[in-house]
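Handoff note, outgoing to incoming analyst
You'll be picking up this chain. Sequence as last confirmed:
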Amino acid sequence: MKKLLLLLGVCTLAACAHSPLQIQVRPQVEVAAENIGAGRTISVRGVNQLPGGGLGSLGGVYANSSQVSLANDVEGAMAASLSDGFASWNFRPTNGNADVQVVANLTGLKYDSPNKLVTSTVDTAAEVQLAVTIGGATYYGNYRSKGEDRSLIKPSREEVESRVNNLLSATLQRAFADEKLKNFLRTNH
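Most recent structure output, in case you need it:
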């Protein structure tokens, strides 16, 4: 009986150690109200251009089987967050034809531990390329964030989700701090 309980315990621990992790991405931005849009319509579309199927590994002994991947529509989550930000600038978000078109390309999103024996360092990074078109003019902005965290134990799904969401939120927030983007929106009608 003791051997059976020990075997069940080992199997349970092994199953947890091998589990891949899926996270929900919900970035948020905080944008101070300004009248940059002057009531013009805006359409925002997100595009997932991430290479491969995941963000990286949680690391540790079972690094190959503890991959981190997205569980939801990252394109829609980015578009919703950016639409909220542009609404704070007095743009009117719409799904149809609009005065201003925004395409947000997610070209990088990483949550990866390079340590294969013990999870101690976690590298995080996000990169978004924004293309904002008004009439025949287009503004391109590249926004990046990265970080490095330390973790001695395998982080929970909630911790991973929080880190990735904070990083992607900070990256999108950089667009709203971009003075060149603001000037482009003000001067092109």
